[in-house]
Amino acid sequence: MNKFFNDPNNFVPEMCEGLVMANPDTLSYVPEFNMVYRKDMPSDDKVSIIQGSGSGHEPAHVMAVGRGMLDAACPGNVFAAPPVDFCYECIKRTNGPKGVLFIVNNYQGDRMAWEMAEEMALAEGINVKGIMVDDDVSVKDSTHTIGRRGVAGNFFVIKALGAASENGADLDALVTLGKKVNDNVRSMGVALTSCTPPAKGSPIFDISDGEMEMGVGIHGEPGRRRDTLKSADDIVTELFTNVADDLPFQKGDRVALMINGLGGTPISELYILYRKAAQLAEERGLVVVRNYVNEYCTSLEMAGASLTLLKLDEEIEALLDAPAEVPIRVF
Amino acid sequence: MNKFFNDPNNFVPEMCEGLVMANPDTLSYVPEFNMVYRKDMPSDDKVSIIQGSGSGHEPAHVMAVGRGMLDAACPGNVFAAPPVDFCYECIKRTNGPKGVLFIVNNYQGDRMAWEMAEEMALAEGINVKGIMVDDDVSVKDSTHTIGRRGVAGNFFVIKALGAASENGADLDALVTLGKKVNDNVRSMGVALTSCTPPAKGSPIFDISDGEMEMGVGIHGEPGRRRDTLKSADDIVTELFTNVADDLPFQKGDRVALMINGLGGTPISELYILYRKAAQLAEERGLVVVRNYVNEYCTSLEMAGASLTLLKLDEEIEALLDAPAEVPIRVF
Fold first, then answer.
1. Which residue among A75, A211, A324, B23 is least packed, with the fewest CB closer than 10 Å?
2. What is the CATH number of the domain that holds B87?
3. What's the rounded Cα separation, in Å, for the pair A21 and A23?
4. Which chain A residues touch B278 with a CB distance below 8 Å?
């Protein structure tokens, strides 16, 4: 296991600590709940948007805390749902006059934690609601999921809700918006290698040189099949076709197109994937209004990628264009 | 070799093509010379800032083309210097009334190509000069280098020169500035795994589980020693101490601190490294004014990281703060 860490049990807390130390003017941290939050939260003027999920998917979700994105995140351990008290405390501490909206990706552990926390908060009179993300078209039901898994499409839900909440939208409007974004986003991924959670110390699944797991989940859950590694263009074609056929996306649709790296794939390869994906979009008559080629939702150091399409309307497009701030600096 | 590619010989051209397809409003491409350039170049109002180096270090340098950064890049193949004609054409095509400045990292192949291209351009009356980056403190002389290697510190040279050229600085002033930034920046890296260039098909060096190459170069050149893998804190302490002692950085210095991922290391681990690095900076009395925790100069999918310190003065600090645009989107 060739990784940078100290005590594997402190992997997530030390990551959060580093993140907050790197952003001392904007972020704060409650170590007991792995809670990273915007210093200026809760605000009287906006619904707080929060998320807590397993770690190991960075920059999702803890590195999406910032103006116009999440107001707080309370990640669990690597690939483990946050405990109920993390969720409950995160709701409570971000609650303001306009209430709290949590985003939960569709995994049983995450849902259970957030639903229990929601009940506890509601019992105290807190105005809290949640929305669920389940954008992965690859399989229905999986190791940790009933229904579809929530993967990189979550990024667009955060971006839209973060922007709309900054604009003053109320809780019910945000729930409607979050559902609309989720209804219009589809993803599928492929793994070329496995990955090793620090506390486990061994790969979460075995895969040989020259193989790929088509439709993999972001915790290494099985996809549709194990296959021999194909060319980049063939792989993208399979991902694109499955994603685009699912909604389905149709000629003339304005879309956002994301090629998301799973952690161990260099950005050079992601642009090779984007090249073919953009050609396929054009052939299908989709208008790619915005594109995203980077890491947004990873699986530690897994080599692999996912493709996401989001169907835009005027409202969503404006929200994607809205200003935002994240802790990660590109220049 | 579990990578996304089609024909290994088209790896770099397809990456460039994807990059330009993802940025159709701002970037253009001359396939014969792998030349990616700002559509609005050359400008009458600024010196053009260009770079061409081996590929495989993305986002360096081809993904640093944008307003306030590079005006053009002409990358060679993976880990191979660009041919002379790439450099010559890149100079010629970006030349405007204020001339051209190229940035070259200190590798023999890169220097030879750029120096020959410079001579050819000068003979045609083009006003061109170059500056060299050699920030790696780990070894003097290396596989491809006489003197110190140029590594992630190059990012700061690009950022400062890009901003100053936007402000209208002339060629001589930019040469002086580029030398100043290079004189004040120091880096050192460590590899936890090797990496595989697509055309080679096998790792560039062997390293076992539980080992690290302390002081590695960005093409896998040997560092100071092979050692057993240490804790994240111990590794950062060694990197930081070597970097900070070299200038040396002194109590009260205002600095930029970068933790750069080498490609295969998740950003979670980079923040664990940053945590300790920031503590060490504070202990030494350095004032970390800006920090950079992300991938800036990679070695394909190598797991590893480098640490860079840049000593700031008022001029450099303002240039780092200046607006810029790069093709990579974080939100």
1. A211
2. 3.40.50.10440
3. 5
4. 18, 21-22
